[in-house]
Amino acid sequence: MTNGPRMVLHGCLSGFRIRLAFSTSVAVTLATCAMPFVSCAAPARGKGTGTSIPARASTPDAAAPRRPASSPAPRPEAITVVGNGRGSLRQMQSASRTMLDNSAPGTSALKVLGQLPGVVFTSADPFGAYEWSARIYSRGFSENQLGFTLDGIPLGEQGYNIYNGLSTTRAVITENLHDTSISQGAAAVDVASTSALGGAVSLHTLMPSDMAGGLVEQTFGSNSGFRTFARVDSGRLNGSGTKFSASFTDSTIDKWKGYGTNATQQVNFKFYQPLGERSSLTGYFDWSSHQEVDNQDLSLNYIHTLGTRVDNYYPNYAAAYDAALGIYTHGENLTDDPKDVSYYESSGLRKDYFAYLTFKSDITDNLDVNASFYYSNSAGLSTFTSPYGSSPNGAPLQLQGYTLDVSRIGFLAAAGYRIAHNHLRAGVWYENNQFNNGLYLYQDPILGQGTPPSPTTWLNPKNAFDHAYGYVFNTNTFQTFFEDTYQITRNFRINAGFKSMLVTTHDGITANDPSYTGYGSLPSGTMTAFDPFLPQVSANYRFTHDDEVFFDMAETMRAFSQFGLSGGASASAWSVGDPTQFHQAMRLKPEKAWVFEMGYRHDDRWLSALVTAYRVNFENRQQVVSSGPIIQLVGVLNNVGGVTTDGAEGSLTLHPFPDSRIFKGLSWYNSISFNRSTFDNNFTDSTGVHHIAGKLIPNYPELTYKTSLMYRYGPASVNVDAQYMSRRYISYMNDAWAPHNWVMNLGARYQFPGYGILQHISLELNVYNLLNADYIGTVGEQGNPISGDYQTMLIGAPRQYFGTVRAEF
């Protein structure tokens, strides 16, 4: 069950290369992720680590910066750094193409990042592709408080109801990623994001190959999972170097509990055109169609009373019909809210278009420029059938359809200039975003007199009997940045810069039915988030060949969210509905934070180590307190004051036998993260004073531990990995929580030698949740109450099996 009417919803032949892959599910298990390679020595040091790039893999769009020969070899601060971030001015880590390949096809890149210290990824499916359940956190910040970009192009906030961007899984097919990185502390000043209170996630796509080739994958497995992927590389078409790649994927998989099929079709196209020796033009296009049939959101009471397998009634319309009449057949009457666990169906549908065009040029040896134009459109429909509303024909159920349309157009431009020991950079970003959303009510049939539409049917608003409400939001974003990286000595660099941000949103009301909303008119107005100076200072000092320390300090700001009444769990001024509360909310200040971190890195042949300590002072935190049934979710927006976060994290990768012929490929990765994020203040609303000062923020664990033991010998490898997560609080008062959990995975793979035109054939076997642990996957998808239990959790998937076959031509 989802939020009130919610929005849903390689390679080569040396001439041709094809990769076949069979996986027992479109699902992915991180059991296949080469965890020992998260914190590894830089590739230049000669280790056979997972940060290496396959021989024919192309590099991402961004070129490496010019730098003194004595300095390490990181990418620019806005780009990813490999492994444990060697040479970076702040903590930045990445999942390489090799790590992504070690995951089963269809893996969410964000789930792979979840193996890094300080990063928490949760989901109700084993592969992170079920968008309603997918959540990523970094050092206490959630996905709507982080920044996300693809090849530098902004993707907006993540989460389910994306109003200003596009889901990472729908922006690019995983096989087309070169790598994915995250800055756990603060995003660099040049990251195009209005939500990056904390760090930023950067995805980089593969460039088309210089050689003609192709890639094909076939995936199948648990829950009738079936996924086809095909990619074609043109190779260099002429003397100027023109080349392109085109790919397609089609995947279907059944829910692991209940009924319904989730499906995705997606197309990626990318071209690269050199313009002389110093310039280039790159274009990218993405189309996707995605459908989900949702799981029932659960409370602790529902779980303890009905078990973890309870789900929506679909396709048993008769049982849902009876429940709406108060005739319960599955024990719902034993729970504390029978009707709120008695929904017929819920689903989410999406169709997306996304494209960009980027020009880059090294005008001189010291001056470089780049500019990008982009366009994105996402249409969505979320449906669910509720017992809380009736149909005009007398049926005790009502089908509700929440629609959305996000249309963005924007450009980015930046220039860099090197003079003496300085690397100066400046840039600008502008975007116009129009977000339309609304709720339509549809009639369900009388029992025996027809069949309700399938949850995956796109409904026509013309067939609705009521347009309950509608909004249109128009947002203009203008952001500039300036920074200087100064090489003080051969081993000491410092970076200082700032960004300016101006984000203005105005809304209009397109529909309002007072009999549904309860308001004679819905509030409308303009909100602006502005700060001309958001500074950042970072430094890196390498005091031996293998050891370095780094420091970062930044002030950050997040623009205001945009949701109407359907926002539910979203902290939006427009979601309150009541005009008086809205005008109070309009006086809120934007959320801001000061982020501090310092750390130490070590790399040698035997081990890679990283230790970081950090502090975050978060002010004007805007939080929604949820109450009521899911279908009539009441979200009250509150400024709960400040939040103070103190934390530390470390990782250690051991390579105990670097010179052994047999055991050289043995490695053991461990990471531990501690985060204590507490509210600084009590807050008052219409029900009184709530004493949350000193309480931990909901949904986020204080302690996580991740480990992976991997052995690679010749063409074979095997790994076992596990993750521990401490309890996560459901309520602001910390009097209800999801218990700790421990999930273990297993992965094994073998690569055969080439045969004829076949260059690579590999077999893989993955087992997710090896011990079949019964655990709560996602917490807080419906928001959080002040105190006690609430229907805001999703159960994690049981043991799942995945098998993969790959071949390259």
TrEMBL record:
Assigned keywords, A-Z: Cell outer membrane, Ion transport, Iron, Iron transport, Membrane, Signal, TonB box, Transmembrane, Transmembrane beta strand, Transport
Domain TonB-dependent receptor plug intervals: 92-199
Matching PROSITE patterns: TONB_DEPENDENT_REC_3
Residue numbers spanned by region Disordered: 45-78
Localization terms from the record: Cell outer membrane
Gene3D superfamilies: TonB-dependent receptor, beta-barrel domain, TonB-dependent receptor, plug domain
Domain TonB-dependent receptor-like beta-barrel: start-end pairs: 306-770
Ranges annotated as biased composition (Low complexity): 54-72
Molecular function as annotated in GO: siderophore uptake transmembrane transporter activity
Cited InterPro entries: Beta-barrel_TonB, Beta-barrel_TonB_sf, Plug_dom, Plug_dom_sf, TonB-dep_rcpt-like
Pfam families: Plug, TonB_dep_Rec_b-barrel
Signal peptide: 1-41
A GO cellular-component term linked to this record: cell outer membrane
Bilayer topology term: Multi-pass membrane protein
Similarity field: Belongs to the TonB-dependent receptor family.
Protein name: TonB-dependent receptor
Organism: Novacetimonas cocois
